[in-house]
TrEMBL record:
GO terms for molecular function: acyltransferase activity, transferring groups other than amino-acyl groups. Pfam families: Acetyltransf_1. This is Acetyltransferase. InterPro entries: Acyl_CoA_acyltransferase, GNAT_dom. PROSITE patterns: GNAT. The keyword Ligase does not apply. Residues 1-158 form the N-acetyltransferase domain. Keywords: Transferase. CDD domains: NAT_SF (cd04301).
Length: 163
């Protein structure tokens, strides 16, 4: 993801996540802090058909929605999937699996052995299908920023990259 991709990312985020609005500069901060974890998923014409915002973090204290990180933690223990959005025509074509394989490699490069995320806006079944399970002990004030159905989830990263 490059700086010029931000308008497309914001357009996709606004359309696909209406209940979880975030400011453009908050999303761009994640891109600047962890360029390798922020991806554009192209459609058939090469235009942004989805995106991924992710970074190393601490699983026990996920960032609240629409908040600045300021810096990445020195002792990360997970790869945090802040947001993955894919337009309907790209769904079911392996884009999410491909993105998760890339992120798994980044997680391993950072020495972490699990991924974490906040499932919101009805996405819990999708993430459960991908092997994520609910994570307990997350402060409710953080979870609440993602909406009433938000569920912190995580999954171990196995020894092989299979998604």
């Amino acid at each position: 993801m490059q700086p010029h991709d931000l308008p497309a990312v914001m357009a996709l985020a606004t359309t696909m996540h209406p209940g979880c609005p975030e400011r453009a500069d908050v999303l761009d901060e994640r891109r600047r802090l962890c360029p390798a974890g922020c991806l554009i998923l192209p459609d058939a014409q090469g235009r942004p058909g989805g995106y991924v915002l992710s970074h190393p973090w601490r699983a026990d204290r996920p960032p609240a929605l629409d908040t600045y990180l300021h810096h990445l933690p020195g002792q990360a223990n997970c790869w945090y999937l802040h947001d993955i959005a894919i337009i309907p025509p790209l769904r079911g074509q392996g884009a999410m699996h491909a993105a998760l394989r890339i992120l798994t490699r980044h997680a391993r490069d950072h020495g972490v052995n699990r991924m974490a995320l906040m499932a919101a806006e009805g996405a819990r079944p999708v993430w459960a299908h991908m092997g994520f399970t609910p994570m307990h002990g997350i402060p409710p004030d953080i979870t609440a920023t993602y909406g009433v159905d938000a569920c912190p989830m995580h999954r171990a990263i196995s020894g092989t990259i299979q998604v």
